Amino acid sequence: MITFAHPWLLLLLPVVLGLGWRFRAAAPAAFSRAPVLLRHPALAHLRLGTARTAPAARRWLPLVLALLVLAAARPQSEGGWLPPAGEGRDILLVIDASPSMSIHDMTLDGKTVPRMAVLKQAARSFIDARLQDRLGLIVFSDAAATVVPLTHDRAVVAMQLARLTPGSTGAATAIGEGLGVALRQVEGRTPPPVIVLFTDGDNTGGLLRPREALAYAQALGLRLYTVAVTPEPALPTTDEGGLREPTLAEMSELTGGAAYRAGDADSLARILAEIDRREATTRPPPTERVRLEWYPAPLGLALLLLTLGQLRELRTGRAA
């Protein structure tokens, strides 16, 4: 169905048609010029009659003006549905930067490389796929620090990820501290954010214990995904009080997430692809359609008629 963006302009059609019909013989031709007159004293004795040619009626002029008004009213029609923008999520990547992440025991492109190199490549692909999300980056070893707060600037997150160096901030693995810094950033946010924790071992440092951070995560109602970046499974440990710390699998299960173990680059890529699917961006139903503009058709036809009419006058040598 054809509609008009400016339908009030159609009220001008009768006026334009009337004016075009009235002045159809008086409108100047494009590129017209005054005739060249030669004066000579002997011409008066020749008694030559002066022939005048009446200007040709431009019957096409009312139609051209009407088409221009029709184009100015912008005829439109509805096309397909516009895909709505997805509702992004807040996702924090919490990465272990302890010296053990530099161990060369993983394979990438047929070569043995450090664990951190495999993690960087897979995490970069994950970052590039999350177009609508806000992403943040937290690093932990002896302590934890926010490298990039939650942001839509995926390029900054990827750049800081590439700069990570294992062992530059200590030798311990403070998983509880890393989770604690992440939880302080996302508390009170709706919907609950998602945390993806990468580590290759158990908790060996920090003041905040993993079980304490887990209790806080459950209270906030967020999902925790844990990825063990190591060929060997980690064993649960106990602190000096004899209390066992929760395993990565238990931490993920209690928060509604999932736990994984990546032994090589391919498995890590599959793991992050699965997390990407599980946390897919939600899209509301479409509410707007594409607007197809049809004003070029009457505008082009008007210009064509105007050009043909003016060429006809120039060829016949008629002037208004």
Summary of the model, kept short:
This protein is an alpha/beta fold. The protein has helices spanning 13-22, 61-72, 115-129, 154-162, 175-186, 210-220, 248-254, 265-278, 296-316; strands at 3-4, 75-81, 90-96, 104-108, 111-114, 134-140, 144-151, 194-199, 223-229, 259-262, 289-293. The strands form three sheets. The chain has a six-stranded mixed sheet, with helices on both faces. A three-stranded antiparallel sheet has the order 1-2-11.
- Largest sheet geometry: 6 strands, mixed
Helical amount among residues, as a percent range?
25-40%
- Name the beta content range: 15-25%
Along the chain, the helix and strand elements come as EHHEEEEHEEHHEHEHEHEH
Rounded to the nearest angstrom, the distance between the terminal CA atoms is 42 Å
Number of strands: 11
Put simply, the count of helices is 9
* Rounded mean pLDDT score: 81
* Uncertain residue segments: 49-54
What is the spatial order of strands in the main beta sheet? 7-6-3-8-9-10
Provide an overview of this structure:
The chain has 320 residues and is an alpha/beta fold. Helices cover 35% and strands 19% of the residues. The protein contains nine helices and eleven strands. The strands form three sheets. The chain has a six-stranded mixed sheet with strand order 7-6-3-8-9-10, with helices on both faces. Strands 1-2-11 form a three-stranded antiparallel sheet. Strands 4-5 form a two-stranded antiparallel sheet. A hairpin with a 3-residue loop joins strand 6 and strand 7. Helix 3 packs antiparallel against helix 4 and helix 3 runs parallel beside helix 8. The radius of gyration is 38 Å and the shape is elongated. The chain starts with a strand and ends with a helix.
